[in-house]
Amino acid sequence: MIKYNKKKILIDKEKNDLNRTDSSLYNISVEECQILCGLLPDHISDIARIIHQNPQHIFEFFTICRQNMNQRAAAVFFGYKTHASISSHFNQILGSLSNDFVPIYIGSSAFTRTDIQRNTPDLFKKLFPGVVGIIDGIYLFCQKSKCFELQKKTSSEHKKRNLIKILGVRFANGRWIHDIFDERTDEFIGDRGFRNVDNERFTVRIPPSLAKDQVQLSTQDANTTRKITKLRSCIERGFGRLKKWRIIGTVIDNNLISKVDSLLRILSAIDNNYFESLFAPADSDEQDVEFIKHREVISNILQNLPTTLQWITRQVHEIVDFIPALTLETIRDYGLGDYALKLAIPYLQHATAICVKTHKSKQYSNVIKVEGIKSRYSKKSAPKHHIVFLQFDNDNWENDYTLSSDYDSDYESLLNIKCINSYCSCKSGARTLYCNIKDVPIPGYRAKSIILQQNITDLQPFNQHRREQKSNKDDIHDTNEDESSSDEFLEDNRRKKKRTY
Question: pTM of the full predicted structure?
């Protein structure tokens, strides 16, 4: 029975029910525990053994972090009379984890330099020998405070919101750290936001930028950018996994701003110890290194095509047969990867929605040109349109005049992509190296390809439908004109008759 007492709603229960903890660690299933707090019961027991605290209080702490519960809601959920108990348990577990748990699994006391060198993947060692980790920043949005000083410190002109900027550092093996070793030889991979880092204990390797009056990166710089992007992708996914803890992934309460640093260390230590690494060594790493080292030194033969080439205009559906049948393994070897494969579908839809022109070379039967491609990020009313050149070699073609690729025959057994090349007039379009991510299943890719070929690349039914619509509109317009002209003729006759009488 619900009773109304002033502005509060009180639930009429017995005293024993108020003291009972309904959502207890001991009366829920393993799946329910993982959904609520993001951890398994075994993980909670292990943490309780390390910090010597009540497992139920640990369960409450991580449930609040996972679900971003306020203290009053948590008190009702766990069956406490007041929220003071929840506040006491939260602060107690926060302090114990910071003092006893975090130093074991994160920071300089948890790793030695020997551990770093031993656990660094071969992909890092061979591509960037001096790199030991990845560094990047992340935005955590917070409430707008009534305190003017805090407002000023958290206000961002760039994001137009109040936020906290956090700097995150990960080892190459995917583990979080909160301190950097004092070694001048240490190198970290970062983005262009670290280009002004100077006089520090470490060096940040960033992607090359365009120089003044330069419109496109060289092939070498574009390939370096692609290598850095490939290796630093794990820290972006790491931030995404941290933000699944909604206490930091949503708008942070102002009362928690002073505790954000401790919370991030705790959640990163949990990530290091109980979650799967986001950069696990694979059996294909050695092959990937050979692939990358070979691709980054070859020249882009399509970049210097003669300007005197003659082109034949072709419709999109007329060049479908031009592209040879490629297996999924071949496409991955070329370097598209999982992300680019998924992105190819909306990009193709984007390309068909704009005015794209396709041409086939008269001189080289294995080269086509696509004009009118624009960036998906462009917001200008008149964006810059790029030109894309594609090369596919097919042994069944009768034309002997084909553009040959500059590949070493020793790699023919390793690379089944030696007959594929591309060039774009965009900033990084001269690269010959792409982001190769293997062993990532892509369900339904073959079916999606068939649908795209039938529904998107074949524009004849669409164009026929548009022509029919236009002709119907013209007929309606002509009919209206005839009706209006006849009405005017009758009206003139009436006026003449009136004047006659």
Answer: 0.71
Q: How far is CA 115 from CA 103, 109, 248, in A?
A: 16, 12, 30
SS3 423: strand
SS3 118: helix
**Which residues are paired to 359 by β-bridges?**
313, 369
Residues 6+ apart with CB under 8 A from 474: none
Domain ranges across the chain? 2-105, 113-281, 293-458, 461-501
What DSSP state is assigned to residue 178? S
CB–CB of 406/301 below 8 Å?
yes
Structure tokens at 29: 């299933």
Q: In this predicted model, what pLDDT tens digit does every residue of 19-68 receive, in sequence order?
A: 444 578 888 899 999 999 999 999 999 999 999 999 999 999 999 999 99
* Residues 397-411: tens digit of each pLDDT: 444 344 555 444 443
**Collapsed DSSP state (helix, strand, coil) of residue 56:** helix
Q: Is the dihedral of CA 376, 378, 382, 388 positive or negative?
A: negative
Helix axes 260-274 and 83-96, enclosed angle (nearest 10): 60
Nearest to 30 by CA among 50, 20, 45, 19: 45
Three-state SS for 325? coil
C-beta separation of 414 from 329 below 8 A: no
